[in-house]
Design brief:
The N and C termini lie far apart (66 Å). The radius of gyration is 22 Å and the shape is elongated. It folds into 2 domains: 190 residues, no CATH class; 94 residues, Arc Repressor Mutant, subunit A (Orthogonal Bundle). 34% of the residues lie in helices and 26% in strands. Strands 2-3-5-6 form a 4-stranded antiparallel sheet. Strands 4-8-7 form a 3-stranded antiparallel sheet. Helix 3 runs parallel beside helix 6. The chain is an alpha+beta fold. A hairpin with a 5-residue loop joins strand 11 and strand 12.
Length: 291
Amino acid sequence: MAKSPAIARQISLFDMDSPLHGKVRGERSIMDYPFFVLSKNAHLEPIEYKHDQVTIQIRPSATGVATMWDKEILLYVASLVAQAIADGQISDEDVTFSAHDFFRITGVERPSVRDYRRFGEALERLQGTQIKTNIETGSKIDRGWFSWLSEAQVEYEKMANGDEVLRYVRVRPCNWLYRAIKRDQRIYHYHHDYFRLGAIERRLYEIAHCYCEAGPIDINLEELHHKIGSMGPMKRLKQLLKSIEAENRLPEYDVCLVEVVSGERTDSIGRRRKSVTTSVRMKPRQRSISA
């Protein structure tokens, strides 16, 4: 039976998940691996990632692969699901929320028409981007392709002056992610300054957040370049890391470059040169203790 306009209006106003309380929460697998491109420019080529036994294949939507900025929506949705589970509620697969609360959480104080347009485009990429991976969640492996959002619906209400106002957003996260949140529960809180970071800085923060629980870690620069998902030259990443280290830009973690002389080599004209291995050290920042 079709809903009456009055009932549809009630749903748009009242049938929502509660606003997100506290910090944004992320699921470990989407923090650890490079599922999202680092550039806002449309990436229209397939991507393959292999590391140890993990394989990830990504197919673009008509407007490109989902980006690190599109990921904000997925983090927000995952946070609402994790919040419902933590509160002892029965979490439905469908998540209904207001764009206003999303913008509040991500630090957009006065969203513009352009912000709402980008929000809609991000939903399209999250629904259109296809992923295939052997990473299991909830003790299951999805052999086929899936999209981050199985469904995405945005309802607008037309005002008397002809303007359209976004009333609510309803999405269904993919089974792969929903199982990870509900069954595996490897959930990490994000620092609120995460949304102020650039794409590579966000990846550094996520990797540090996954691996620095027991203390500092060292990771080879080449391996980090791969793990971040960077498609630029390694030289550019090294320069950026030096800048991040000098300016102490990463919340909660210190990052520094460590260069170790690993021997000597002979160049093309017979000169002896030192071989230098560069690694990146990440460590939790010491918290100041008030007297």
